Amino acid sequence: MEKNIWLSLLVMAGTLYGVRALPLTLLRKEIKSPFIRSFLYYVPYVSLSVMTFPAILSATGSFYSALAGFAAAVVLAWVDGNLFRVSLGGCVAVFVVELLMEVVH
Amino acid sequence: MGDIQEDKTDGKSWYRRGMRDGIPIGLGYFAVSFTLGIAAKKAGLSALQASVMSAAMLASAGQFAAINMIVSGAGFIEMVMTQIVVNLRYLLMSSALSQKVRRDKPFLHRFLMSYGVTDEVFGISVAVRGKLHPAYMYGAVTTAAPGWVLGTFFGAVVGMILPPRVMSALNVALYGMFLAVVIPPSRKSRIIAGVVVVSMAASTAFAMLPGLKEIPSGFQMMILTILVAGGAAALFPMKEEA
Fold this sequence. Notes:
Chain A is mainly α and about 100 residues long. Chain A has four helices and no strands. Chain B is an all-alpha fold.
């Protein structure tokens, strides 16, 4: 069993690495097709947006604090854009709202 | 297409930039990976095994799937197939990076960079202006990965050590980063703004509609990315200059 776990980890980590490494190492040339170029250009915006929303709304202790965190991060990203400040701002908003909710109760 | 742009900044400063941008990722990882450590321990993995798994895989959905399969005594074939399906989105991300990375750097870099293709490190790496210097990704991994491994370790050894409200707040850190990547370009381009809004709306639909919401989330993301990015590429082909 003990050995099996290590072997399982090796197999799964190896598979995962293969998925990550295959395109990076095989697509060495610049892709010429305008459609594929455009597609790959949009991939990050779509994938990151899809992962963020609505998942962020259930990431915290309450829907309202999550909404506050989301709103704070969107506003900060719009006016500032700095990764660290946007991220921290979202966390602070969640923290403050949950603190307030606890006080009110 | 401005393939080989003059880039005066050297590897060291790219590395430092990556480290700096990786800090919020590391903090978010620290919070998220606690649950992973706890789950791993429940499944009978040692703290060392859980930590090694996190260091080797750097993937949340993939690791939860891994833990489940170890518990259920799945065979190696099933492990391989499941890891491919659950992590299929990395194929797309890695493809996007293959076009973004500087072509004047040795090929070996691509093997090293592959290790760091996580949702978050990918997110900040594609957001870099111009071509991507591999050192940026290495820097980001340097500060982000320890958060992932340490969180898993503490989760497995002591369970939750942070008060729930702090955990709750830190859980938003990673989403904040994603927003910091997609929102600023939305300000400059209406097309990107539209793509972001449509993506969020479509993913909300997938999360709520019966039939669609049963699809595993990694797969949902893959389907949505192909549909929305494909649609955007067909309707608004990128202007050749970026």
